[in-house]
Amino acid sequence: MQVFKKIWYLLFIVCKLNSMELAAATFKEEISAPKVRILLGLDATMRYKNVENLKTELQLLQQQWKDFATLYADKELDLVSQLTQLQQTTTTLNSIVLQKKIHLLQKLQQVFFQMKETREKSLELLQAHIEFWEKYFAQSLHQSNILEEKSLYTFFDFQNMTAKFFLQQDYVKKLIAEKEEISVLISKEEHMLSNKEKEMARLVQIIADKKKQTDINKDDIVLLDLEKELIAKDKEFICLQLNFYQKQLEFLSSKESVAQEKVSMLQEQLQAVRHRLYIDIADVSLYEQKNIEQQKNYELKKSELIKLRQEFASKKLQAQDELDRLRLRFKIKMQSLKQIEEAEYHAHSVSENFAIYSLAKSYATVITLDRMLCKIKVEILAQEAKSLQSKITSDTVKLLYGISQGHLKDSETFEKERAIYKQLKESLTNEIVSCKDEILFVQNNVKDLQRILAHVKLQQEKAKASTPSNAASAQKKWSEILILFDQLIKQLEEQHEIMLQNGELYEQIIATEQESLESVTTILHEFNLIGVWHRSMSAVTWEGLKNIVPNLGLFVKGLWLIVGTYFSSITFQKIAYTLSSFGFGGLISIFFLLFLLFFFYLLLQASLPTLYKNLLSAGHDSFDPLYKSRQILAVLVGFLIEVFKPLYFWSLCLAYEFLFFVPVALLILFYIYSIIFWIYASRRLLAHFILINRKFDYELLSKRLIGRFSFIFSFFSISTIVILVLRKMLMVVLLHQQTELPSILLRVYHIVIFISIIFSLDKEELLQLLPHKTMFGQKFAAVFARYYYLFLLGIFSLLILSDPYLGGYGSLMWHMFWNLFVTGCVLGGLFILHTLIKQYTTFFFFSENEHVAGVSERFDYAKTWYAIYVICLMLFFSLVAVVMCAHVWGYGFTYATCKKIVMYEFVKFETLNSLGKSIPESFRLLNLLYIVIMACVGVFIAYLFKKFVLQRVFDIQYVDPGIQNTVTIISRYVIIIAAVMIACIQSKLGFVVTYVSFVGLATFGWSFKDLFTDFVAYFFILVQRPLKLGDYVKIDENTVGVVRRISPRAVILRRKNSVNIVVPNSTVLKSCLYNWNYARNYIGFDDIVFSVPFGTDIHLVREICFKVLEEDHDVLKVPQPFVRLQDFGDKGYVFMIRGFLSSGNTLRQWDIASNIRFALVTKLAKFGIAIAGPSMKVLVKKEANEHHLEM
User: Fold this and answer.
1) SS3 800
2) Does the N-terminal peptide bond of residue 1119 adopt cis geometry, omega within 30 degrees of 0?
């Protein structure tokens, strides 16, 4: 420890001597390049270096230009001689080759000329770049601040500074756009260069292939060599162009960097002007008085101009009548001044000349009066622009006064004013564009007039030079023509003067509206600054955050440069010279100061231990109010005793910094030593506090909180020391740099404070503070305990966002919290009021009955009406809640707001009128409401139609209930759809009705395509008659029956069990159809199959079957029935009986077959023959024997 202290003492003495040396040497030695870099900052030094590089490059380019100029002159002479020689050649054998060669030489000559121009432009651009930086450095040295310092600034100062700020911002945007255009050109040139390289490679390959051939054509080789040279020069020219564009891009980047600096400077100055802006009520009254005077002046001048316009309008009508009379007299149509320009004077046709120029003079008079009316109109517009400017200025001053006095607090009024000024800005911008277009129109008209005037004067000279005939009438006409020429020229000159005046008036209007636009822009900028969404100007910017790493790099480089430059310049000769320059008196003063500080050090060193012992030996008295203070004082005194010597050394350095000039390098070393020392001191203070607290049995701080206190104290103390001292170092090193890093460090310190405050609170302590008596409090405490760290993160985020130096959204946070609180109160109050009203109005619908449990209805359908009432009440309170909450959040619902919402145009479209012209239309919310209302009206009309029309018809004449329901439903839908369509047509949505109808029909057709198929199939059934009424048909196993009805939709079948089956007509045609009545002769009943046991006389069985068939009168004899031995089955012999019936017995065939079965069983029984049944043998195998079981 003693060695460490001695080293620091030695370093302190050396630093003092070296600081004296640099203080003396600074004024005697010339500042070197590294010192310039330290004084001006790395950015300025790099710019100086960039200028030096540009000058070196300029010298190189100038030398290259001299070499190229000589080469260009020689090449130009060579090319000119070759072209002259080729053009003088008269040989026609190789005329195509000569033309190609001449063409290539001419292109080569053009490329050389373009290269010369590009080199000249590169030199000029480089010179302009150097001049730009030299001018910038000159202005930086002589004009550090363009803002005139004032204690208070007026409105015009604020307006002018705002205009300069936005003008500079527009200039930056323009430079960025130009850089983008240059980048596009560079990419195009690079693409062209790659194409030329490919073309060169292809040409080299062609030349190599040509030279390999035996029969080489020398002319082709010459042409290919010329083409190769041309491509090489094209590549060189493209490279020069790329170099020129790169230099242009660098020049624009330099301009942009300087412009960005000016924007930052103007923004700071604008902020200063804004903070010192002073507008009082006298200024508001003054501008209002000026506005009133301007409005009176405007009305007076406007009335005068209107009277003048009426006079000129009457004169124009008279001139127009005269023009129409001349048109009828001379039978000539003149509709534009262009006809005057096309008119030619003919010496031999005096009457025709007289007619033409009489009409031209009259037409020019009409045009002159018309242009005079236009001039009066423009003068009125100029007066309106001045009046508007005066009003805008007065309103702007008044609004700024209201903002400064805090009168503009209502967000609704704020947004309303903002919307008005935004609309005004858009209107002014459009008017300025319109005036510029008018100026272009006036300029074109002036050019046309000048051309027409020159033509008329030429024709006048021709008329004067012509000699008319000796006739008196001809002489008179000639004289009148000359007078007409004079009058026409006078009219045209007057028109020319009027047009020039119109152009000047439009320029005045543009200037006036530009000033008005500046005022509007100023107030809009102010609105953006005071709005709730505006971020504080003192908050950290995104650009500053992005530049943290580059700025830290600059800091490290500057730190290394400063310290290295300083210690590399130390010599013993300079130290000796510095000591000698101070003199004996200066050294005595320094040693006297050191002696006083040392004496103070000895005094404290002797007194502090005694004081510390007395404080520790004081008695324990918890009721003594100074007891805690003595404990804390004991901690501080013990800490001072422990760190007294290094603290004394640090105090000496600090005193020296305040009293003497200290070099930057030594100041940085002192800051580094301060960080190390105070971190060590904070750790010792914490350790001593814990020791004293433990000694006094944790009376200062409980044992449970020691760990948390140690963490928070260490975090806060170390962060504070590092951040604050490092910020001072950054401010020293980056003194001339435009950086936000020191401010960002200070903002980081705010975060450290927030973290320390948040983590100093314990979770259990906070939970104890929360209420636990109510259920809501218990639930909230449980949620808070579960999501404790999420709550901490939210609070931390809100603190950062609301801090004016971090998030910068303090006004927004306050606005959100206050509005949420008011919204909660409004919703809670409305909910309570809604509950009370609903509770106490139940009496009007229900009553309590003593004899019956519960409540009873006061009138019919009371429950239904009560439900409707509750729904309406809820909707009403919901609407009130929306309106009130919207008002709280700055979106108040007024009549204008509701009208704006209702008239909001959702969709814009065009419709055609009866003449075929397109008319712009729009679909608004009002139209939608109208359609909904008409739909409700349609529902009501449908109800009335059912009650008073359909119901009476159904009462008079019995109608099936199903038909009644169908007619009622169809009529209801028809009425509702008709009402909606009428509403759409009245809302200019007829095309929607058409489209919807088309889509509806298409959908209807697709949905009911089976219905149309059945309808078409109905006609096929009627024509082809595959079935008819009364036929017994079968389509599948389940679809069997007698045809009872054939309708356009389906065929109705009736089964034997009296069940009806509806079969679609299309199914009848598409499916296989079994029709027993299709042919009117006979049918066969279903085959009767039965079995008899084996061993039975089969011939007897056959005879019995025929006997039964013969005895049945329904069985036809022709065709004859037959009996077959069909199979040998498991049960015995299998017989099959088939008989035929007439078609009239189709529906009785099952009864007839049943009768035959009855008769067959009876006959067989008489002969002892039984119908065979199923038989089975089961063999059961046992161990002893086997038993056969026969079944």
Assistant:
1) helix
2) yes
Per-residue pLDDT band for 348 (boundaries 50, 70, 90) equals low
Residue 145 has pLDDT above 60, yes or no: no
CB atoms near residue 490 (< 10 Å): 14
Per-residue pLDDT reduced to its tens digit, 428-442: 999 999 999 999 999
Rounded mean pLDDT, 120-129: 86
pLDDT at 22: 34
554 CB contacts (<8 Å, ≥6 apart)?
42, 734, 737, 739
What's the rounded Cα separation, in Å, for the pair 598 and 592?
A: 10
Q: How far apart are CA 877 and CA 898, in angstroms?
A: 18
Instruction: Report yes or no: 430 and 480 within 8 Å, Cβ to Cβ.
Output: no
- Token pair listed for 721: 């020391």
For residue 589 the two structure tokens come to 């003063």
Six token digits for residue 958: 């019995």
- Report the interhelical angle of 548-568 vs 664-695 (nearest 10°): 110
**Range 1010-1075 has CATH code 3.40.190.10:** no
Rounded to 10 degrees, what is the CA torsion of 852, 856, 858, 861? -140
Distance CA 582, CA 24 (A): 9
> Which tens digits make up the pLDDT trace of 591-617?
776 777 777 777 877 787 887 777 777
Q: Helix, strand or coil for residue 1025? A: coil
- Gap between the Cα atoms of 638 and 691, Å rounded: 10
For 54, the token pair is 């540009």
Both tokens of 793, joined, read 């993160």
Distances (CA, A) of 750 to 754, 756, 758, 761, 762: 6, 10, 12, 18, 21
**Which DSSP letter does residue 1033 get?**
E
Structure tokens at 195: 């194409």
pTM over 0.85: no
Write b or e for each residue in 580-592: b if 16 or more Cβ atoms lie within 10 A of its Cβ, otherwise e: eebeeeeeeebee
Only one residue has tokens 């209002």, namely: 288
* Residue 373 near residue 313, CB atoms below 8 Å: yes
Domain boundaries defined on the chain: 34-213+222-243, 826-881, 913-1007, 1010-1075, 1083-1179
Q: How far apart are alpha carbons 1148 and 1137 in whole angstroms?
A: 17
Q: Residues 1180-1190: what's their mean pLDDT?
A: 47
Judge contact between 156 and 236, C-beta under 8 A.
no
Burial 735-773 (b: 16+ CB within 10 A, else e): eebebbbbbbbebebbbbebbbeeeeeeeeeeeeeeeee
Q: What is the DSSP secondary-structure string of 280-302?
A: -HHHHHHHHHHHHHHHHHHHHHH
Q: Give me the numbers of helices (H) and strands (E) for the chain, helices first please.
A: 33, 16
**Long-range CB contacts (within 8 A, 24+) of 70-79:** 72/112, 72/115, 72/116, 75/112, 76/109, 76/112, 79/105, 79/108, 79/109, 79/112
3-state secondary structure of 402: helix
Cα distance between residue 1145 and residue 1151, in whole Å: 10
Q: Residue 235's closest CA among 208, 275, 207, 203?
A: 203
CATH architecture of residue range(s) 1083-1179: 2-Layer Sandwich (3.30)
Please say whether the beta carbons of 527 and 418 come within 8 A.
yes
Residue 624 pLDDT exceeds 80:
no
pLDDT of residue 718: 92
Given 3-state DSSP classes, what are the helix, strand and coil percentages for the chain, each rounded to the nearest 5?
A: 75, 5, 20
Highest mean pLDDT among 33-47, 532-546, 1115-1129: 1115-1129
B/e letters for 88-99, b = 16+ CB within 10 Å, e = fewer, are eeeeeeeeeebe
Task: Name the pLDDT band for 486 (thresholds 50, 70, 90).
Answer: confident
- Asked whether the domain spanning 1083-1179 has the same topology as the one spanning 1010-1075, the reply is no
Q: Which residue has the tokens 């199903």?
A: 962
